[in-house]
Amino acid sequence: MLMRTDPFRELNRFAQQVFDAAPGTWSKPAVMPMDAYREGDEFVACFDLPGVDPGAIELDVERSVLTVKAERRPLPTGDDVRMHVSERPLGVFSRQLFLGDGLDTEHITAHYEAGVLTVRIPVAQQAKPRRVAITTGDGERKKIES
């Protein structure tokens, strides 16, 4: 039921750590870190997007691929502003999740609060566990306790 992520993401992360990390640092943080878990009959994915305007977030579903795209824009600058430190990544960030067939992509909901985008995807009705009736040799249906 859990999604698989982009197979090249780990390779990209490794290359970024090796080639882009500043001297003396071990690694750079992920641009759009995510937690994913199942809660009851829903699959939940939480994306950290601090400093992103809610209007700059796009959430698209095509077939079984959920794409989250967000843009962190630079702070307004003027003639009297001198930047001393600029460590926060800017630009457009994107993350794709490959959803399993057991999820209901028609009823996805999303909520953005305190820099966290929470996406909830219900488990499809046909994927939920159900009890199967067992018939006996005489064709009669009986509830058999297991």
From TrEMBL:
Source domain of life is Bacteria
| Domain (SHSP) ranges | 25-137
InterPro entries from the xrefs?
A-crystallin/Hsp20_dom (IPR002068), HSP20-like_chaperone (IPR008978), Small_HSP (IPR031107)
Q: Which Gene3D superfamilies match?
A: 2.60.40.790
Protein family (similarity comment): Belongs to the small heat shock protein (HSP20) family.
Name of the featured protein:
Hsp20/alpha crystallin family protein
